Description:
This protein is α/β, with parallel strands linked by helices. Among the domains are: 35-185, no CATH class; 225-378, Rossmann fold, CATH 3.40.50; 611-714, ANL, C-terminal domain (GMP Synthetase, Chain A, domain 3). Strands 12-11-21-20-22-23-24-25-26 form a nine-stranded mixed beta sheet, sandwiched between helices. It has an eight-stranded mixed beta sheet with strand order 17-16-15-13-14-18-19-29, with helices on both faces. It has a four-stranded antiparallel beta sheet with strand order 2-1-4-5, with no helix packed on it. Helix 12 (453-461) links the parallel strand 22 and strand 23 (475-479). Helix 5 crosses helix 6 and helix 9 crosses helix 10 (410-421). The radius of gyration is 27 Å and the shape is globular. InterPro entries: AMP-bd_C, AMP-bd_C_sf, AMP-binding_CS, AMP-dep_synth/lig_dom, ANL_N_sf, ATP-dep_AMP-bd_enzyme, HotDog_dom_sf, Thioestr_dom. Residues 626-700 form the AMP-binding enzyme C-terminal domain. This is AMP-dependent synthetase and ligase. Residues 214-573 form the AMP-dependent synthetase/ligase domain.
Amino acid sequence: MPDTAALPETPATPASPTELPPVTPAGMPTTHRGLLDAIIDGTAPPRAAVARLALPGLDSWSPGHASALIEVGPEVTFGGGFVFGGYLSCLVDLYAGFAVMTVLPDEQVFLTVQLDTSFQAPVAPGPVAIEATVAEISSRRAVVTVQLSQHGKPAVTATATQLLIRPEPPKGETVDASQSAAVVTPAPAPAPAAPAGAPVFTGTYVDRILEVFAEHPEREAFVHGDRRVSYAEARRSVHRIAAALRLRGLGKGETVALFVGSRPESVLIQLAVHLAGCRLVFVAPEPAVPEQGAFLRRAEADALVIDPGIERAVQLADLHGPRVVLTAGPGSLGEDLLALAAAQPDEPLADPAQQGDISTIFYTGGTTGRPKLVLHKHTYYFALIPASERRKAELPIPHRFLVCTPASHTSGHIAAILTMLAGGTVLLMDSFDAGTAIAIMHREHVTSLGVVPPMLGEILDHPNCPEDGFPDLVRIHYGGAPTTPARIRKALDRFGPVLRQAYGLTEIPVIAFLEPADHDPEIPGRLGSCGKPLPFLADRAEISLRDEQGREVAQGEIGEVCVQGPLVMAEYLGDPELTAQALADGWLHTGDLGFFDPDGYLHLVDRLKDVIVTGQTSDNVFSVLLEDVLTKTPGVLSAAVVGLPDEAWGEAVHVACVIDGKTPVDPADLSKRAVEELGPLYEPKSIVFVDALPWTSIGKIDKKAVRELLLRGQG
Length: 715
């Protein structure tokens, strides 16, 4: 993050474009009234421009908005196309009437926004616009969204020759526009409220999406097969479904489980559940019905909404349904939620959800192999708003995002939300098929594609995949499973510099990005990297690599990936001990091992525990569950389940078993039992009988040695 200094109490002269006032000495509070410093940094010092904006909301402890123009001189360039490390940094100090909130230097509120790196044209001389919006103020922080643009596109390096404050400054304030970095001098009286119509973010992410729907009612929200849903229709549906949920006694604090396929209703019900203040629980489609039922009981679901067209969902409702069962359309059991919603008003709800409320419960096995329930608050989604603004800046027209992963998965869920926040269109598939995806990309002029690596491989290998790529495609978002540099090179050759890799977990959906400009096959090891930490969220996201004693390791050394930031989970439901372990010392301990290279890119080398990421949708296979099933089979003494590299699926499930030699054991029967009890995702690709399994000195199966044993057998 670029250096940022505290604002002077009463500046005698304005700060120059290349030098800011010194930082306030330690322990000395700074008190300022509604000021924000925006520093435009280039790829290297010195600072290229400084702008100071007056934000009314910081005076009145309410949302506020301000904007400014910097006139750019002819020497402005992008430095060769792609820009590395361009930042807009803002320092906010708060003052409210006679009640002064002191902000000590170690508690200053910072916002860092990484500017777009995909715009390749030089910046032309002319105005560069800065838009700043205060969305949330508390005793500890102010959430400020800042957008920098020139002619609707992001600008990175600038030289300030003049600064104009727009709209006109409030009465009692003066602006010196003759200086290279003009300063708004605060007057004693408080500033007025934000200008009418100023774009401010209040409430939850759902409120913001509903605002976007209202701003562009004619746009398409969803495309699903031949069906198209407009923003206006989507907005009405969310309000009505939320009202229907309230009518059935489902309000704040109630838990609603959702088992609906990847169709518009899945996303609309998600939004409505959150708008009503309920907790949303995604039912993972892969586990067998008994495991899904156990999950519902642990989540203490008050209601279950199912897709009547999915047989397993109907079975789940019939065998394990909670007190309220609703269907997304007419079905054989439960009440039709959509029919109930059609009779409700499309008006805002009283007492909607708040930022601090628990919003979502995700199902994951994490690194322990035992399923866990991950709780996230509404702040988890609110922190994504700057990322959605960044997504808008990547394309002058609204995105058309094809979500290939299930809408109930974290990747599909987040992709849909980001697309709607950015004013784009979400395209959904019932299930992934490479040929169908290719046809949709052509027909619907898809600009963004969301996949896991096995899906990307299937698209690349499909005979209908064009050799010269897709003309409208500007981004391929991938992640969630291991892949090979060879696959990435093939995708780069076919589609061009459009790939963006995301590294994350259910506990924190995105930790780092490998940006399109970073996908450089000429740099050794770069395509095997996870990228860099995210600097463009609504709060700082930090990564620390730590050893077993919790000490930070040096650059180049291997340590456990630990993360802080607004996207980190709140807790594991019903497991305070595991929560305390995972969030020890204020950091989320991911269980992944990695190192930073000299350029600051994160590389993963292993996992502390053995979870197999496999399947067409890159799901978790928990080895302990499969081992338990196999060892319950007569004749099987012990079993070790590991993941081995697989070209199509990233990893595949392989098993080494020890049998007693007395009872006949058929590998085909073992595979069948695994599928019956755990689902098709757990079907082993191979089952090998061995005389003995390798053990560690403390009496545990040595999974590393098992992998080596099975790999030798493959060779």
